[in-house]
Amino acid sequence: MHSKLKLYVLVALIMALGIGLIAYKHFALGFPLLPDDKKSVWTIEAKIDFVARGDPVIVSFALPAETPTTVIMEEDFASSDYGFTELSTAAGRRAQWSKRAASGHQTVYYRVSEYETDPLAAPPPAADLPTEPEKPEFDEVMKTAATTLLDQVRSKSANTEIFTRELITSLNSDTPSQTQNLLLNEKPSEDYKTHLIINLLALEGISARIVRGLYLEDGRRRQSLTNFVEVYIGNRWLLFNQNTGKIGKPDDFLIWQRGDESLLDVVGGKNSQISFSIIKNVHPTRTLVLRDSMNKEAGIIDFSIYSLPIEQQNAFKMILLLPIGALIVVIMRLLIGIRTSGTFMPILIALALIQTTLLTGIVIFLTVVGTGLLIRSYLSQLNLLFVARISAVIIVVIAIMASISILSNKLGLDQAMTVTFFPMIILSWTIERMSVLWEEDGPREVFVQGGGSLLTAIIAYLFMTNRTVEYLTFNFPELMLVNLALILILGQYTGYRLSELYRFHSLERRNVSGKP
């Protein structure tokens, strides 16, 4: 009992470690669990045009921030004979182009490629506390109109969230009142409406700020930023659409800038304009996450198979499938009761089938083993010692494999030329073992164990060639720990095999009927 308890504790620890590492890579680093998982990578180009006056020129442009749900892959800054500097300010990052003297039409470019991460995989955002809202300075008429509107909205709202939504809805009413028209100043610009909402909220003691962003749509050109209002409610910032009052960030919306700092400043130029162009590309999620994790030097990635050269990585793609084959062999032998010729032979046959394809591999295997058994039966008549006999079988197997390759080449059967992927030593040992088994237990036992080995190898092949299994074993090598825990548990099983239950099924029916 004590040894079983130690085993169960060991299995629980191994299983917890394996599942924990897999969960960490999936939820913390963002590795997908399916091979076909893909993400949209958006490439956004900002084009800045202005007319220089012949004086020194400084162009300052707000850059997007990398948020917990947004990953910036790469950035490019293009300009003609301009110096460039990336600045970090209290409000965020800014790009700065400068030139001693310039005249006439000027253009500079900024390009960024980014994608959205899974919100569950994103780290929690850092604390972003608001400042105390400053009371705006209105003249008496505007102040009276603002107070009247705020009183009307307050009477129809129960909390700050509803108050903000009702305020925005009132300002966007299709039939505005005289008070609303006065505040909106006829046909207001988007910036005017945004600052009006923020100022009205400040009068109510509510902290709010402007948010600028882009609606992401493939192939769009000459786009401009759209304003939203972000309000601090209940220890968190909530985003409001300033035209509809809807809460939350739209799925296709990229936040570019937060705060009231200018988007673009041009010193030494006039008539400045900025436009955005957007294009979408689709990339495998695994490639994006791996690249991001390597850039961040994540420890579990830095000390992993990904750090090996490509040649070694390709080798490990095959090696990491072996635990799956081992688990299949354990299940087939211990739970189902299939008899095989050794433990490793079905796994190695499955590996050979992966290289040769299923049908071709089965034909080659049966041909080599069948021919080898005939020749081995002749060698047994020569009364050779075991070492000499097995060495002779190895040479015979090599000769058979060479003959199959040459013959298939002449016949144009390229698939049969893959016979060399079968392990020669294992085939030789299999032929020797089956020959001895034939002599001791008869041909029936040879067919039972040989057929069981081939059946187990085929089932292992089907699992090992599954795209999802191949993906999981390579990208989550921690799965080996889960396999190990399962094999250790199955190693304690001493009950009936499935084949034994079927074998004694007739006895059970006799006992039920009461017949001897």
Describe this structure in words.
- By secondary structure, the protein is α+β, with helices and mostly antiparallel strands.
- Among the domains are: 38-127 and 215-225 and 248-297, Immunoglobulin-like, CATH 2.60.40.2250; 314-477, no CATH class.
- Helices cover 49% and strands 21% of the residues.
- It has helices at 2-28, 140-155, 160-171, 178-184, 190-203, 285-295, 299-302, 310-319, 322-336, 345-356, 358-379, 386-411, 424-441, 443-464, 467-475, 479-490, 498-503, 505-513, and strands at 38-53, 57-62, 70-78, 83-89, 92-99, 103-116, 208-215, 226-233, 236-240, 253-258, 264-267, 269-284.
- The chain has a four-stranded antiparallel β-sheet.
- Strand 8 and strand 9 form a beta hairpin.
- Helix 2 (140-155) packs across helix 3 (160-171).
